[in-house]
Structures
1.
Amino acid sequence: MRSEDPSRPAMITCALSGVMANRSQCAAIPYTPEEYAAEARRAFEAGAAAVHIHARTPEGAPSFEVVDYQNIRDAIVAECPVIINFSTGALGVSVEKRVEYLHAVKPAVAALNMGSMNYAKYSEKKRDFVFDFVFTNPIAEIRALLAAMVAADIRPECECFDLGHVGTLAPLIAMGALPAPFQVSLILGVIGGIPGTVANLVHAVSQLPEGADWEVIALSTDQWRLLAAGASVGGNVRVGLEDNFYLEPGVMARSNGDLVAKAARMLRDIGRPIADVETCRARLGLVHR
């Protein structure tokens, strides 16, 4: 595994809502700008330096409209100084549509999915897939979104669901298309991507570009074990209702703040200081808006 300083302050990101879950599954998922802002504040007060946003309409439907991203961003900024990260992941939404809200609202960071994949969820209880689809992210679209981010001084957060996605970083760096510092997320536990084991995490980390500021994202019951493994060797962590509702089996979080608080306790227990917003802004070379 790439050597990391385990005493380096850890950045906590909180993914506030995701795009698939709804309030019938978890009552704390935010829909309105005011609810996003309240959840962002709870996450920030518990130790998060950044929040990851999938926009929704006030009724809860996924949105890729400038007005919804703008209203959510403005509400969060009025509540707390957290770093704002916008999703660009989508099915059937043009690159131009996604670039439109990036350039109009200009978040500090935007997620950049690094490759195509089967994307599925499997139910052990039902012995069947809950859903499955092909998540298409061809290199031409990756390059177009990346160029739009760089042009707007938005830091790409390179989301890697598989080792092939990690491998796509090298040519983009060599071309000069992906500038340093590199922020990389390793996402484990999606059927079709990297299975959620510590051994797989170790190998994925070993393939990262030198100097990458990396985080672990893990889903459902795999989350806490894999976050602890990554954090123990210098990785950052992401939590939030997009990834997992539960603090422990059978105990649902009341808010995103509960999940961040657990992550912060875990980090402190293994000797990792929590990185504050300004530390993370400096590390990632973010532009103040």
Note: The chain has one domain: 12-284.
2.
Amino acid sequence: WGNNASLVYESVGVGENVNNIKFAYHSFTDILNLEYCFWDIGGKNNFGCVNLKRKKYCILNKEYTKEEYEKLREIIVEDMEKNPYIDSKGRVYKYGEFFPLEMSLFPYNRSNAMRFFPKTKEQVLSLGCDWDDYENPTTSFTLKSNELPDTIKETTDSILDEIIECENCARSFRIVKGELGLLRKMDLPIPHECPKCRENRRFARMTIPRLYHRDCNKCNKPIYTPYSPNDPKIVYCVECYQGEFN
């Protein structure tokens, strides 16, 4: 997310006082000089580590002295250049490349990548990513969504025993005790949609992370904006936007 972050390259989910982070995933809070690390919290000078907290000079989760670390890291980087990983599509991954797509833990169509960068099954497979054809089965339900109480005050604990039919996709879903407690605390009615449909509705309101060529609505200067030309929103260049506050 970038709070007080600098020199971050090909990394995901890093932030809060970070510097010189390369090819890292979900590593954050006061981290320095990390390469190829997953879930490295508060680490410094680590290479190829997973799930470490406040460790330094580690390679593959083993801690070394500063001198040992620097020497071994140099050997590993040299070997990555000479003997790079080659994926099933023949793509070469030397030192300096993020993890190969085929190492992803999730099928493309089950990840948020599908929301932001939709692709067909053929396109996904051509990239070397996985595709999941499994469809969640619909099960029998005990309560239709239009039979739900209008308010949470009318809802009894018996709702925890019901299997509810989603009003959009006809999937079945249940309400769990913790969710019911939260709905009561916030005075919200029982949802009529399954969790997946609710998630889809939230994502539909998000701005897709793409940039479009448009002209500033005030001075006609060409600009890049996340709002597509078909979006009726008014867009300004930096100068015109800042001028609104002077």
Note: The two ends are 29 Å apart (CA to CA).
3.
Amino acid sequence: MKKMKKYIYSMLVLLLVAANVHGQSPNWSVNENNFQYTMTFVGFLNVDGTTLTSVNDKVAAFAGNECRGVANLTYVASQNKYFAYLTVFSNQNNEPISFKIYNSAKNEIKNIDKTKNFTTNENYGNLFQAYSFASPALSTEAGLFNVGFKNVQSIDMAIDGNAVTVYLWPGQDLTALNTVFQVSPGAEIYIGTVKQESGTNAINYTNPVQFQVLSADQSVLKQWTVTVKKGSGNVVYYKKDAVCYEGGAIKLLYSQEGEAVRLITGTLTLSTQTITNGQVVFNNLNEGTYKVIVGGDVKEIVINLKK
């Protein structure tokens, strides 16, 4: 009998605790009949860098202190993600709208710094590029800083604007390279709308590959082209040693007009030129060891000082 009473008491305590937590959930609501116009959002919720994933989590819109819309998270199986489908109500355009997040796991409300002016019939976000309701705000950077390959040695990599070129040794198979990416913090990289996991993929680089980098807050989607080139072995190199009154020189002949040529000493790029009329010449070189990289070929050349 005592055990039964103890069990009943424990259950009552648990129910009271649960009721207390539930009772603190904000009672946000809006009378839709009071308003003429709407704008909508397809968004995700993020608090302190963690994306929320409970149907009890919610976001609400406010004009001043008046609630103008509220939505709980909904699981979308096709994306394996949770989204908030938020409808905001108003009677006028350009009305400032602010937002709040309720994090059910911590039973706390977070204010969002980002606001929106009301625009009739406007929609923000979609299932691929959702609107970010985040506290604090997430990064808008969508950079691609490095591209490499597992178990494959790269000769060189160059980034020019949104174009990345990686040079590999002759004979390397390009049809299934396991690619390792370095992108902006929190950003994700895609081919089309298929997310690519760094170091666990097999990508065919026979032709240039188009990637998309999506910023952490999903507001920026930046296009990147990655081209992989193999050494051709068709580069011809000449050198002239330095003398006391004149620096040395390196000359190379290559058939790929407009191809970039880099001259490196140690880890420092001294000069970058392009093939013009089938050749490039680097003049006034001091005594030392240089590396020339062009079209996937790399050549180490020593300039001596003749006395």
Note: The two ends are 107 Å apart (CA to CA).
